[in-house]
Amino acid sequence: MATQNLCTVKRRGRVHLITLTGAGEHRLNPALLSAIRSAVAASAGAGALVLAAEGKYFSNGFDQAWARTAPRHLQATMGGEFRGLVADLLALPMPTVAAVTGHAAAAGCGLVLAHDAVIMRGSRGFLYMSEVDAGLKLVDFFAEVFREKVPDAINRRDLLLRGGRMAAPEAVLRGIVDKAVDGGVEDVVNAAVAEAEKLAARGWDGEVVAEIRKAAWPNLWSKVKDYGADAPAAAARPRL
């Protein structure tokens, strides 16, 4: 299944595999975020979810070029859609695994950390928070991703305030990434699918998984829940 030609969805056993397609940077603009959210919503009945990407980049963050040219009334859409995607992942009734097949920068790095487990390519790619270099502030929920998913203050400082590029071996040693995998993109995806299959095989109650996840990261959930797919209709959400 294709979603607006921006990502594909396949079933690999019990695993729902979403792949961002093409050799580009997978910049997170409203169209791509909406496509990913639609693909996540289509995961009903799967035992686990994996998000991967083709090409050199997992995601190079927000699409700043789009933001500079978008009409003012659409400016908040990109952040709102990303907040909604984080909410969708936290509320998803199954384990989630990020297959970091290439560079993951800024919002792309935040998207990685929104998953339950992270498998990263060992020989190529890095995690990079570019905001300090670009002179951009962190909005509340985005900062909360790092406060709750990177609880060690030194690791959080090095990601957010040093502007360094963290390769997989270092990220594993710091406990930010679960596993580094040698080889190419397919090797990383296969390892992530295998990890997801292992989690799916536990046969956990999906609703319990989702509720435990929300309880484990309560501050993050409180900041994104009104934007998720299951948010009350009355909640204010940006529109495309």
Calculate the mean pLDDT score and round it: 93
**CATH-defined architecture:** Alpha-Beta Complex
Number of helices: 11
Uncertain residue ranges: 234-240
| H/E element order | EEEHEEHHEEHEEHHHEHEHHH
Tell me the span between the first and last alpha carbons. Answer: 23 Å
| CATH class assignment | Alpha Beta
Percentage beta strand: 15-25%
Rg calculated over all Cα atoms: 16 Å
Protein name: Delta(3)-Delta(2)-enoyl-CoA isomerase
Pfam families: ECH_1
InterPro entries: ClpP/crotonase-like_dom_sf (IPR029045), Enoyl-CoA_hydra/iso (IPR001753)
GO molecular function: delta(3)-delta(2)-enoyl-CoA isomerase activity
Question: Could you explain the architecture of this structure?
Answer:
The protein has 240 residues and is an alpha/beta fold. It has one domain: Alpha-Beta Complex (2-enoyl-CoA Hydratase, Chain A, domain 1), CATH 3.90.226. 43% of the residues lie in helices and 19% in strands. It has a seven-stranded mixed beta sheet with strand order 1-2-3-4-6-8-11, with helices on both faces. A four-stranded mixed beta sheet has the order 5-7-9-10. Helix 1 runs parallel beside helix 3 and helix 6 packs antiparallel against helix 11. The longest helix is centred in the C-terminal third of the chain and has 16 residues. The radius of gyration is 16 Å and the shape is globular. The chain starts with a strand and ends in a 16-residue tail after the last helix. The C terminus is likely disordered. Its EC number is 5.3.3.8. It catalyses: a (3E)-enoyl-CoA = a 4-saturated (2E)-enoyl-CoA; a (3Z)-enoyl-CoA = a 4-saturated (2E)-enoyl-CoA. GO terms for molecular function: delta(3)-delta(2)-enoyl-CoA isomerase activity. InterPro entries: ClpP/crotonase-like_dom_sf, Enoyl-CoA_hydra/iso. It is an enzyme of class 5 (isomerase).
